[in-house]
Specification:
Blueprint: H1 3-7, H2 22-25, H3 30-61, H4 66-69, H5 84-92, H6 95-126, H7 132-142, H8 151-160, H9 167-171, H10 178-188, H11 193-201, H12 206-214, H13 219-235, H14 238-243, H15 252-263, H16 268-298
Helix pairs in contact: 5-16, 6-10, 6-13, 7-10, 10-13, 11-12, 13-16, 15-16
Keywords: Cell membrane, Membrane, Transmembrane, Transmembrane helix, Transport
Subcellular location: Cell membrane
Pfam family, one: BPD_transp_1
Length: about 300
């Protein structure tokens, strides 16, 4: 063997120094990556705690007596899970009327928002008409307008029409959903145009194409818009407070204020019980639609 061959001979594996971290420790960047992941998990847990702990406290406080809420140090668990606060809340104000009013305004308002968003987005994407891009630009601009700016004009119009203390006064001024239109439009841009073209060749009208082809394949986006609309309608407080002054037409958030005024701000057990009655239906809707929320909100996210 030549001298050069001897110089190039391989080194025994046992004589090679171990790589920092070794097989068990992974790459040199592995500890830093794990620290970053741990920090991310801690931040996520802190964010979840900030959102969940008030709900847990509200739920537990609804079973407590008045003296238990003011104990120091804080007593999280009630001494007994008594339903007296719920009975007092139901007896103090007509929660049945509040629930029916909220249910009507939420179902009708959310359904009309979804229908208007679907039809408007379909027209913007699949129809050709003058100033189409300008109209969509106005829809996007509407997202930037705070609701408080249009309250006075809407109230003046509703008052002139005689719609104070009516369902149409509660529902109609908030039907225009720029968010729903924008989300539907972004999703429709990702749909296969060939399917709609084939349907058009078979004689399907725009209405048929919308409800028989577009809507069935847009279920995740519809679920996302439905959830946002339902939560918005159910929790709406300022507008119903302005256009309703009779107890029989109040919705649940406004009725909760009536409960606070009747029972006093210090009786937090009764107030928390009323708040639980308002919150639970929205939480149930969220859990039913949560699987479709992410896919619906991210649908068409990279489409221009």
């Amino acid at each position: 063997m030549s001298l050069d061959a001897k110089k190039l001979s391989p080194v025994k594996v046992a004589e090679m120094p171990p790589w920092p971290g070794g097989a068990a420790g992974g790459t040199p960047q592995e500890p830093a990556r794990r620290r970053i992941q741990a920090g991310g998990y801690l931040m996520m847990l802190a964010a979840v705690a900030v959102m969940v702990l008030p709900l847990v406290w509200m739920m537990l406080a609804s079973f407590k007596e008045r003296d238990e809420i003011y104990t120091v140090p804080i007593q999280w668990l009630p001494e007994s899970f008594d339903l007296s606060n719920y009975a007092a809340a139901l007896a103090a104000v007509p929660f049945g009327n509040f629930f029916i009013n909220s249910l009507i305004t939420t179902l009708v308002g959310a359904t009309l928002k979804i229908a208007l968003g679907l039809t408007t987005a379909y027209a913007v994407v699949f129809l050709e008409f003058p100033f189409k891009n300008l109209i969509f630009g106005l829809v996007v601009f509407a997202l930037l307008v705070p609701q408080q700016i249009v309250i006075i004009p809407n109230y003046t119009l509703v008052s002139d029409l005689g719609w104070i203390n009516t369902y149409q006064g509660l529902i109609l001024p908030g039907l225009a959903s720029a968010f729903g239109t924008f989300l539907f439009r972004q999703h429709f841009l990702t749909l296969p145009v060939s399917v709609l073209e084939a349907a058009a060749l078979d004689g399907a009208s725009h209405w048929t194409r919308l409800w028989r082809f577009v809507v069935p394949i847009s279920a995740p986006t519809i679920a996302a818009v439905a959830l946002v609309s339902i939560v918005s309608e159910w929790n709406e407080y300022l507008w119903p407070l302005l256009v309703v002054d009779r107890a029989e037409m109040m919705t649940l958030p406004v009725g909760l204020t009536l409960l606070q005024n009747n029972d006093g701000v210090t009786n937090w057990g009764v107030l928390m019980a009323g708040t639980v009655l308002i919150t639970v239906p929205v939480l149930l809707v969220f859990f039913l639609l949560q699987r479709r929320i992410v896919s619906g909100l991210t649908s068409g996210a990279v489409t221009g």
